[in-house]
Automatic annotation (TrEMBL):
<dbReference type="GO" id="GO:0009636">
    <property type="term" value="P:response to toxic substance"/>
</dbReference>
<dbReference type="Pfam" id="PF00043">
    <property type="entry name" value="GST_C"/>
</dbReference>
<dbReference type="Pfam" id="PF02798">
    <property type="entry name" value="GST_N"/>
</dbReference>
<dbReference type="GO" id="GO:0006749">
    <property type="term" value="P:glutathione metabolic process"/>
</dbReference>
<dbReference type="GO" id="GO:0005737">
    <property type="term" value="C:cytoplasm"/>
</dbReference>
<protein>
    <recommendedName>
        <fullName>glutathione transferase</fullName>
        <ecNumber>2.5.1.18</ecNumber>
    </recommendedName>
</protein>
<comment type="similarity">
    <text>Belongs to the GST superfamily. Phi family.</text>
</comment>
<dbReference type="InterPro" id="IPR040079">
    <property type="entry name" value="Glutathione_S-Trfase"/>
</dbReference>
<dbReference type="GO" id="GO:0004364">
    <property type="term" value="F:glutathione transferase activity"/>
</dbReference>
<dbReference type="InterPro" id="IPR036249">
    <property type="entry name" value="Thioredoxin-like_sf"/>
</dbReference>
<dbReference type="GO" id="GO:0043295">
    <property type="term" value="F:glutathione binding"/>
</dbReference>
<dbReference type="InterPro" id="IPR010987">
    <property type="entry name" value="Glutathione-S-Trfase_C-like"/>
</dbReference>
<dbReference type="InterPro" id="IPR004045">
    <property type="entry name" value="Glutathione_S-Trfase_N"/>
</dbReference>
<dbReference type="InterPro" id="IPR036282">
    <property type="entry name" value="Glutathione-S-Trfase_C_sf"/>
</dbReference>
<feature type="domain" description="GST C-terminal">
    <location>
        <begin position="90"/>
        <end position="228"/>
    </location>
</feature>
<keyword id="KW-0808">Transferase</keyword>
<feature type="domain" description="GST N-terminal">
    <location>
        <begin position="1"/>
        <end position="81"/>
    </location>
</feature>
């Protein structure tokens, strides 16, 4: 049975998984179409109890949470494509890797995702305009993180050492979108972060991921047409 990805290719968390599949050279997977309301349907709640995307079904093995899925895929396809995760016996390397993953989850993703919520998702879901005061606060928090990252990345090419890993790739969806929603120069004051992030955005795997901004533009046009 083929690996099934339950998600929307353009969604930030699904794109995290797609990037890893591309890094690993995995192309044999299916994207069962998901319609409005499908995320909260009992069959999807059995895969993702919080009613979110993505989730996978790999020949009956069901898993959710994009970062957990990425780690599973990196181990399952350990012998192909980019390495992305330390070898099983490399205990110290694994600790350093998990430390970098935790930086992303704790100090980068919350402010970056919150900026994207205020500047894009909130408006798209009709929840009003961005609260610019909040945006300023989130941006300042993100900048605190970028300052620390710049110091780390002055000494090594990537967050877990000199080789790219999942910990770096995890930053792509919201790190890229935060730029696109109005902060194109976000990384400019931090030369090591800028070099690092540009190198991630330049990866062929990331170039395969469809744009959420383009999806929203298409959906917006469809909504406008329907309202006419
Ligand atoms: N921590 C989860 C977050 C999942 C998540 O929030 N997914 C979003 C799409 S990026 C979603 O399902 N949004 C729809 C909703 O909240 O109803 C993961 O990484 O998979």
């Amino acid at each position: 049975m083929t690996l099934k990805i339950y998600g929307i290719p353009e969604s930030t968390c699904t794109s995290r998984v797609l990037t890893v599949l591309a890094e690993k050279g995995v192309t044999d997977y299916e994207f069962p179409p998901m319609g409005k309301g499908d995320m909260k349907a009992p069959e999807h709640l059995a895969r993702q109890p919080f009613g979110k995307i993505p989730a996978i079904d790999d020949d009956g093995f069901v898993l959710c949470e994009s970062r957990a899925i990425c780690k599973y895929l990196a181990k399952k396809y350990a012998n192909q494509g980019t390495k992305l995760i330390p070898d099983d016996g490399d205990v110290k390397g694994y600790g350093i890797f998990e430390q970098a993953c935790s930086y992303e989850m704790s100090y980068f993703n919350p402010p970056a995702e919150s900026i994207c919520f205020e500047k894009l998702f909130k408006q798209f879901h009709g929840k009003g305009p961005a609260d610019e005061q909040l945006v300023t606060q989130y941006k300042s928090k993100l900048e605190d993180t970028l300052k620390v990252y710049d110091g780390i990345l002055a000494k090594q090419a990537y967050l877990a050492g000199d080789e790219v890993s999942l910990a770096d790739l995890f930053h792509l969806p919201y790190g890229h979108l935060a730029k696109e929603v109005g902060f194109q120069d976000l990384y400019d004051p931090y030369p090591n972060v800028k070099r690092w992030f540009e190198s991630l955005e330049a990866r062929e795997s990331w170039k395969t991921v469809p744009s959420i901004i383009a999806l929203f533009a298409r959906m917006g046009q469809a909504q406008e047409q329907a309202a006419k």
